[in-house]
Design a protein that fits this description.
Blueprint (H helix, E strand, L loop, with lengths): L1 H6 L8 E10 L9 E7 L12 E4 L5 H10 L7 E2 L10 E2 H8 L7 H10 L3 H10 L5 H9 L3 H7 L7 H5 L8 E4 L10 E7 L2 E4 L2 E4 L1 H9 L7 E6 L13 E4 L6 H12 L6 E7 L2 H4 L3 H9 L5 E6 L9 H7 L1 H9 L3 E6 L4 H16 L4 H13 L3 E5 L1
Parallel strand pairs: 11-12, 11-14, 12-13, 14-15
Antiparallel strand pairs: 1-2, 1-10, 2-7, 3-6, 3-10, 4-5, 8-9
Helix pairs in contact: 2-3, 2-7, 4-5, 13-15, 15-16
């Protein structure tokens, strides 16, 4: 009972000040990607989690970006502000609001309207007016997509905003959710994460993923309090350990399946495990390679199918590997196997879903309409689950 009471002390509204105890690069030298393995200590929290859950992490913004905005509005940072969306009991300083409460990116048309109303320079005003014309909607969207608040303030310096006017345009800094890459049966006192660190350039400026670079660059191991909470999920391995598990997780989508396999081994599940993993290059991007190969050698994995998109002239993806193994995949599904997908929602998950429908139609010798009904039933029975983003 005490554990349940203690666990309820920490939530999204009252996150636990955890410590990150490990920050390890998973890619090998020469990779085009930066994927990191983080270990988050739960000691002293009584937080509990299950395979398939996510960890919410509250980041802070980069200091250099905060100072750039303060400079642009010609403030000191100590000005008191009350951002309406935060519903604070008392005002806070502009620096605190920009550091840990507000998102510095994602400006909307509202700020362009305000800058237009406030601009005193005729050239700036004309640029802003052109962006606000009804026929310029697509242009405005593209313009805003490439900019953060600091860019806009720097580009239109004649539009002087007060600290309060600025924060009234900004959105709340939200926590980021990451699929948990460990099983609590194996690691009850810690949570593992597999994180793609986001760095890119737009509008001639370097951009940094708020939470991924917070953990990668700004958290001192074992020291910096990192507010976290466990987010309960519908996603999880089958309750019946005798059921087979097919897991499709390219890139960081492999995270929950690392947890699934750990969990199923620890619980003594007798069902077979089949993992489909893919990334750019086998030499540099085989995440957790030693672990997967050991599971395979020990018979804990029945199959490990790997898809490398840049190792050969023709790109190979996880859905291609599914099609290659269509007959056996259908046999597993027919036998009551559960099918899971994690990762990119825009392309990968759609392509995998299409491949699944095609395989069921072809191998089951049924029209596509029947295959669609079959997949719908799999979803109803929770035999087809997706964790996509």
């Amino acid at each position: 009972m005490s554990a349940i009471v203690a666990a309820s002390l920490y939530s999204k509204e009252n996150p636990f000040p955890a410590r990150i105890t490990e920050n390890r690069l998973l890619n090998q030298p020469g990779s085009a990607k930066e994927t990191r393995h983080f270990v988050v200590s739960l000691k002293g929290s009584d937080l509990v989690y299950k395979a398939g859950d996510s960890l919410g992490v509250f980041p802070t913004n980069r200091g250099v970006e905060v100072e750039a905005i303060i400079s642009c509005v010609q403030a000191t940072g100590s000005e008191l502000v009350s951002p309406a969306m935060l519903k604070l009991p008392a005002p806070i300083t502009l620096r605190e609001a920009l550091s840990s409460r507000l998102a510095l990116g994602g400006p909307t048309a509202k700020i362009v309207n305000t800058l237009f109303a406030k601009a005193t320079d005729s050239v700036e005003k004309a640029r802003l007016e052109a962006l606000l014309k009804p026929e310029a909607k697509e242009q405005l969207t593209a313009f805003l997509d490439e900019r953060e608040y600091a860019d806009l303030l720097a580009e239109f310096p004649s539009a002087r905003l007060t600290a309060q006017e600025l924060v009234d345009h900004m959105r709340k800094l939200m926590p980021r959710l990451y699929s948990i890459a460990s099983s609590s049966r194996v690691y009850p006192q810690e949570i593992h994460l597999t994180v793609a660190v986001v760095r890119y350039s737009t509008n001639g400026r370097e951009r940094h993923g708020v939470c991924s670079t917070f953990m990668a660059d700004r958290v001192a191991l074992g020291e910096t309090p990192t507010p976290v909470f466990v987010s309960d999920s519908h996603f999880g391995p089958p309750e019946d350990g005798a059921k087979d598990c097919i897991m499709v997780g390219p890139g960081t989508g492999i995270a929950p399946f690392r947890a699934f396999v750990q969990d199923r081994i620890a619980s003594g599940a007798t069902g077979r495990n089949w993992v489909f993993f893919g990334d750019q290059k086998s030499q540099t991007d085989f995440l957790y390679q030693e672990e997967w190969e050991k599971y395979l050698a020990d018979g804990k994995l029945a199959h490990l199918d790997l898809a490398w998109s840049r190792d050969q002239g023709t790109k190979v993806y996880v859905q291609d590997k599914m099609r290659t193994n269509a007959a056996e995949l259908w046999a597993w599904i027919q036998n009551g196997g559960h099918f899971f997908v994690c990762g990119d929602a825009k392309r990968m998950a759609k392509d995998v879903d299409q491949a699944l429908h095609d395989i069921i139609a072809e191998q089951g010798a049924m029209p596509i309409e029947k295959a669609q009904e079959y997949v719908k039933q799999m979803k109803k029975d929770k035999r087809y689950q997706r964790d996509v983003y």
